[in-house]
Write a sequence for this structure.
């Protein structure tokens, strides 16, 4: 990709992230192009459909969450590491209204996003396993916990403060009983 095309691509992604955070995934594509300082045709050359743009933003966000989780695998406190990663995952879903639902939408589950989603699941499962091995949480099904995180993101879209309250409830439920 030429340098100017690469710059336009990155500007479009930045503009889309901002627009999706402000207006959800149904944000105006023309306004995204304007915000990026490019013509609508440039947007459509890079992202022929809204789905392509949402997928590109989603892929970047999933990669960031995966990187965060892998970095937390060596944290001193596995319970706090799990909480930190779950909170970041939930806040991501709250911030980018509609992406929590989009992640579960089979139309968006391209091979790329499906592969990244699988990596994200692996990171979450590893953090849960580490917390369980340390005796910090009770034995749980990883998929259940990750679906609960997605549910919290969906439920708290209109009240971001609710995300922390619901996460606290989830973490209290996961915590292993103290002797």
């Amino acid at each position: 990709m030429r340098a100017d095309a690469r710059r336009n691509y990155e500007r479009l992604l930045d503009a889309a992230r901002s627009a999706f955070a402000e207006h959800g995934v149904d944000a105006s594509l023309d306004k995204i192009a304007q915000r990026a300082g490019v013509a609508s045709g440039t947007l459509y050359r890079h992202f022929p459909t809204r789905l392509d743009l949402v997928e590109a933003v989603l892929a970047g966000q999933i990669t960031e969450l995966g990187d965060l989780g892998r970095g937390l695998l060596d944290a001193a406190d596995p319970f706090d590491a799990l909480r930190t990663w779950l909170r970041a995952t939930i806040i991501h879903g709250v911030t980018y209204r509609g992406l929590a639902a989009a992640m579960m939408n089979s139309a968006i589950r391209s091979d790329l996003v499906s592969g990244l989603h699988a990596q994200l699941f692996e990171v979450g499962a590893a953090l849960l396993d580490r917390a369980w091995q340390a005796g910090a949480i009770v034995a749980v099904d990883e998929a259940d916990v990750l679906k609960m995180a997605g549910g919290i993101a969906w439920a708290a879209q209109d009240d971001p403060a609710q995300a922390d309250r619901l996460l606290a409830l989830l973490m209290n439920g996961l915590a292993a009983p103290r002797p």
Observations:
- DSSP finds nine helices and no strands in the chain.
- The chain has two domains: 1-48, 50-174.
- Residues 20 and 96 are 6 Å apart (CA to CA).
- Residues 50-174 form a domain with the Tetracycline Repressor; domain 2 fold (CATH 1.10.357.10).
